[in-house]
Write a structure and sequence with these properties.
The complex is a heterodimer of chains A (about 110) and B (about 110). In chain A, the strands form two sheets. In chain A, strands 2, 4, 5, 9, 10 and 11 form a six-stranded mixed sheet that branches. Chain A has a five-stranded antiparallel sheet with strand order 1-3-8-7-6, with no helix packed on it. Chain A has no helices and eleven strands. Chain A is about 0% helix and about 50% strand. With about 110 residues, chain A is mainly β. In chain B, strands 2, 4, 5, 6, 9, 10 and 11 form a seven-stranded mixed sheet that branches. In chain B, strands 1-3-8-7 form a four-stranded antiparallel sheet, with no helix packed on it. Chain B is globular. The chains are: A mainly beta (about 110), B mainly beta (about 110). Chains A and B meet through β5 and β10 of A and β5, β9 and β10 of B.
Chain lengths: ~110, ~110
């Protein structure tokens, strides 16, 4: 059973455009929602994370929008650049350790010049 | 530099052989994890350890074994009992009861 559902599986965006990746979860006990960025052949790196006491968090060109009632959260990449081309994973957990971190299936983003 | 070091980066194994993947961290984290990544799938937890000399099975532990003799080290052995071992293996660490995980660069294992 997939605890976190992520879409789309792949995404192609023009340089300068907005990339949007969506995730949904079922377990209302989750209280930590990170996004990881992974380049080919590398390990994932934490990009940005949010907790459910806020509806939005912004760091540079990256924004997480969080809708607690809908149990959904999304990553927006503004002014997308070719260097943003990577696989993005959403995840969710209770703040009890990364052994309880559930990952989405990933979105492969390609930003074309 | 603080971080997690996985070695080797690429590993080839013949069917029926055991192979051990190395993971070392100098972040002073108590908790360490092994994940498996397959194309089109998220990361799946194999084993984790929150303290030296103790470890727990994750979602897909069958065919794998681990040890945690030192805080810095958490090697993973892929045994011949693992039916489909070809995958990208990721080691991670975190503070205990913290969900922010830091990942190594991964080891790509191929069975030939």
């Amino acid at each position: 059973q997939q605890q976190v559902k992520q879409s789309p599986q792949s995404l192609i965006v023009q340089k300068g455009g907005i990339s949007i990746i969506n995730c949904a979860y079922e377990n209302t006990a989750f209280d930590y929602f990170p996004w990881y960025q992974q380049f080919p052949g590398k390990g994932p790196a934490l990009l940005i994370a949010i907790r459910p006491d806020v509806s939005e968090k912004k760091e540079g060109r990256f924004t997480i929008s969080f809708n607690k009632s809908a149990k959904q959260f999304s990553l927006h990449i503004m002014d997308s650049q070719p260097g943003d081309s990577a696989t993005y994973f959403c995840a969710a957990s209770r703040e009890t350790g990364a052994n309880n971190l559930f990952f989405g299936t990933g979105t492969r983003l390609t930003v074309i010049p | 530099d603080g971080g997690i070091t996985q070695s080797p980066k690429y590993l080839f194994r013949k069917e029926g052989q055991n192979v051990t993947l190395s993971c070392e961290q100098n972040l002073n984290h108590d908790a360490m994890y092994w994940y498996r990544q397959d194309p089109g799938q998220g990361l799946r937890l194999i084993y984790y350890s929150q303290i030296v000399n103790d470890f727990q099975k994750g979602d897909i532990a069958e065919g794998y074994s681990v040890s945690r003799e030192k805080k810095e080290s958490f090697p993973l052995t892929v045994t011949s009992a693992q039916k489909n071992p070809t995958a990208f293996y990721l080691c991670a660490s975190s503070r205990v009861r913290a969900s922010e995980a830091f990942f190594g660069q991964g080891t790509r294992l191929t069975v030939v």
